[in-house]
């Protein structure tokens, strides 16, 4: 099975990171709204910059799923299967727990050099994974990859928001969805290809170093310099970081991710370890909320969580539909290949190829969304139409429980891109990315648990004491697996229904007109 992710990281959800919050803009009017940011570089140099920064999104998504087909070889290499689940959990911990932290860091420090630092962390993690002498080192490398990858993703969104006009931005932000979807699907294929070749599984991680080295000159010499606080000394900025809030929120996410990842799979949901992790996570989230609301050892401007977004209907709706969009996209992406591997005995490559129609439709929707939004500006209809399609597609996949060829029938709602007040852009990126990565992480963990627990119960009922090799029993086992898999699509149905309902609560506004007017 493919590794669940961080990652966060959904096509439609990615674009939502910059979505408009008109109620916030009323409080943060700025003349900059009338003068969209204009980049210093154009032409082929700008094309190189876009390609280079989108490559980091591709690698982040790739690293999320590439271990799917190398896990068996890793177990053979280290002769340690007990820690195998940590390969995915370590990555998720690094990715899901640091989005808000990265968002605040990008709001404090130079975006170019913060982005480069996150690239270095990601590449260092990849190098450690590739050269790992044992399983613990590999797990640490995976955590570093998740941590650095989360920083690169927030950085890409921040840099694109700072370097594009409000009319062209949807096309560029939509590109993150395209590269994310591509990396997610290609990950297992590339991992399987390295495993089957003489290169071996270590090159599934070393490949990140090669691509990073190729893009390094672009990062160093062409990447635009965007400083959110020009003239403020570096030491002064460092003193203003909300370190206490960062530590608490990371601890809350770490224990929460471990609980949803191990619950029902490694340990029963009612085991003391899982209950303890949930309790620990809940307590830390409560402490974090108190610390942020009452600005304990921090200030209103320094706190990590953008409390003001909780007062905005638009941002709360975007947070929810971003999580729903990630659920609608990633559950089929992970479950469809498993379906074909069980029912048609497909290899990882063959199962990945069967996903291409799904991905092509998704990419087409993202590009169309960006182009049409740039021309007309209305975003609410996209969420309504997309939610309806997800609802229909999820229902069809839920009802189709026979082992026959399955075409991807659902697509998530294409997302939209605009800007909040300039000083809140980085916080908005972290806020929405948190919804994306966190939503996908929880959804996939629950789907994984439903699938594994359901299939195990059915198989034990079918084969209590008999060998599984008999043909009739094989058919029954496959049927049991497919039926258990179909239950995971109930979450897709829920995501579609939630998106439709919430889209009807969205404002019927034209993004670019309201942005030009500075909010109304």
From TrEMBL:
Transmembrane segments annotated in the record for this chain: 43-62, 84-102, 114-133, 139-162, 171-191, 203-222, 243-262, 274-294, 315-335, 355-376, 388-408, 428-452, 488-506
Gene3D superfamilies for this protein: MFS general substrate transporter like domains
Example GO molecular function: transmembrane transporter activity
Domain of life: Eukaryota
UniProt KW keywords: Membrane, Transmembrane, Transmembrane helix, Transport
Classification via InterPro entries: MFS, MFS_dom, MFS_trans_sf
Ranges of residues in domain Major facilitator superfamily (MFS) profile: 49-511
PROSITE patterns linked to this entry: MFS
Membrane topology: Multi-pass membrane protein
Cell compartments where the protein resides: Membrane
GO terms under cellular component: plasma membrane
Record SUPFAM superfamilies: MFS general substrate transporter
Pfam annotation, one family: MFS_1
Stated family: Belongs to the major facilitator superfamily. TCR/Tet family.
Protein name: Putative mfs drug efflux protein
Protein species of origin: Botrytis fragariae
Lineage: Eukaryota, Fungi, Dikarya, Ascomycota, Pezizomycotina
């Amino acid at each position: 099975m493919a590794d669940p992710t961080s990652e966060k990281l959904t096509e439609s959800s990615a674009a939502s990171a910059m979505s408009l919050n008109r109620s916030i803009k009323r409080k943060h009017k700025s003349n900059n709204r009338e003068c969209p940011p204009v980049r210093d570089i154009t032409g082929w140099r700008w094309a190189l910059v876009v390609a280079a920064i989108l490559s980091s999104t591709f690698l982040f998504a790739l690293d999320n799923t590439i271990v799917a087909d190398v896990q068996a070889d890793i177990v053979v290499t280290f002769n340690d299967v007990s820690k195998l689940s940590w390969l995915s959990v370590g990555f998720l911990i690094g990715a899901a727990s640091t989005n808000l932290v990265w968002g605040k860091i990008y709001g404090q420090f130079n975006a170019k050099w913060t982005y480069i630092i996150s690239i270095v962390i990601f590449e260092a993690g990849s190098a450690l994974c590739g050269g790992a002498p044992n399983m613990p080192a590999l797990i640490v490398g995976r955590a570093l990859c998740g941590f650095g990858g989360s920083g690169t993703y927030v950085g890409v969104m921040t840099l694109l928001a700072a370097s594009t006009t409000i009319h062209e931005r949807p096309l560029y932000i939509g590109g993150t969805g395209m590269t994310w979807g591509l990396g997610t699907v290609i990950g297992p294929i590339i991992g399987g290809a390295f495993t089957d070749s003489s290169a071996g599984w270590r090159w599934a991680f070393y490949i990140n170093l090669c691509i990073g080295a190729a893009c390094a000159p672009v990062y160093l010499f062409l990447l635009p310099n965007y400083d959110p606080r020009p003239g403020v000394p570096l030491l002064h900025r460092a003193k203003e970081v909300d370190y206490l809030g960062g530590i608490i929120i990371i601890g809350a996410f770490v224990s929460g991710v471990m609980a949803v990842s191990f619950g029902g799979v490694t340990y029963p949901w009612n085991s003391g370890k899982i209950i303890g992790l949930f309790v620990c996570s809940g307590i830390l989230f409560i402490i974090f909320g108190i610390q942020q609301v009452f600005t304990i050892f921090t200030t209103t401007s320094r706190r990590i969580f953008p409390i003001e977004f909780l007062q905005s209907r638009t941002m709360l709706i975007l947070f929810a539909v971003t999580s729903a969009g990630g659920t609608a996209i990633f559950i089929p992406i992970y479950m469809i290949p498993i379906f074909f591997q069980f029912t048609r005995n497909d290899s990882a490559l063959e199962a990945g190829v069967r996903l291409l129609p799904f991905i092509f439709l998704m990419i087409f929707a993202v590009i169309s969304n960006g182009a049409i939004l740039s021309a007309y500006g209305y975003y609410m209809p996209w969420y309504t139409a997309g939610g309806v399609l997800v609802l229909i597609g999820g229902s069809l996949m839920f009802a189709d429980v026979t082992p026959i060829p399955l075409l991807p029938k659902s697509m998530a709602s294409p997302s939209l891109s605009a800007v909040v007040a300039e000083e809140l852009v980085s916080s908005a990126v972290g806020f929405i990315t948190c919804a994306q990565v966190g939503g996908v992480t929880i959804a996939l963990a629950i789907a994984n648990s439903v699938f594994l627990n359901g299939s195990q119960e059915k198989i034990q009922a079918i084969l209590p004491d008999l060998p599984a090799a008999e043909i009739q029993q094989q058919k029954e086992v496959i049927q049991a697996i497919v039926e258990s898999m179909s239950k995971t699509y109930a979450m897709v149905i829920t995501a579609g229904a939630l998106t439709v309902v919430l889209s009807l609560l969205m404002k019927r506004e034209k993004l670019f007109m309201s942005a030009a007017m500075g909010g109304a």
